[in-house]
Amino acid sequence: MTLTKRGSASHSAWLMFMYPRLQLARDLLHDDGAIFISIDDNEQANLKLICDDIFGEENCMGCICRSTGQTTGQDSGGLGSSFDYAFIYGRKPDLDISGLPLTEHDIKRFNNEDDFGKYAYDQLRKTGSNDRREDRPNMYYAIKDPDGNDVYPTATAGYESCWRVEKKTYDKLVEDDYILWKKTERNGELVWWPYVKY
User: Fold this and answer.
1) Are 66 and 6 in contact (CB under 8 A)?
2) What is the pLDDT of residues 121-151, one digit of tens each?
3) 29 near 88, Cβ under 8 Å?
4) Burial of 46 (0-12, 13-18, 19+ CB in 10 A)
5) Using CA of residue 54, residue 56, residue 61, residue 62, what is the dihedral sign?
6) DSSP conformational letter for 33
7) Does the reported pTM lie above 0.90?
8) How many other β-carbons are positioned within 10 Å of the β-carbon of residue 139?
């Protein structure tokens, strides 16, 4: 069957179109360079396969998933899509791409530092929709503050709430030093309150 009979929108036509272009991109890529290839749901699985073949699976540096802000396709009877992707490949597997400078906004936000580097934090208690104990019962549990007291996820409005993560995940966050305890004013009282670093 010829390419024209398959139709230009077919997977095969797309692969035949992309393969030589990606080979050329690889040939033009500098030894310390990286290529970022943006793609939506339709061909992202095929793109990963041909990039592994062209650039080498060991040179795949990862995939960035980006929220598009709009969910499309939910009226088609299937699942809607609200993400697109960027695959990153380098010429060498040990290429370091982590050197982007922080913006002024980032510097203000990530103004804390520990052994791992700069971080921001947010409270461990879930806020917003589905933040009540009955919404997520497995995320309602006691944790110990620095003084050894039990702390439960309680909203400032007084109702029983829930943490952002289940107990097993919380224990791992503690082990990895991602939990920050701060004296925080809640309902007119200064108390220990947990935050998660990121």
Assistant:
1) no
2) 999 999 888 889 999 999 999 999 999 999 9
3) no
4) middle
5) positive
6) -
7) no
8) 21
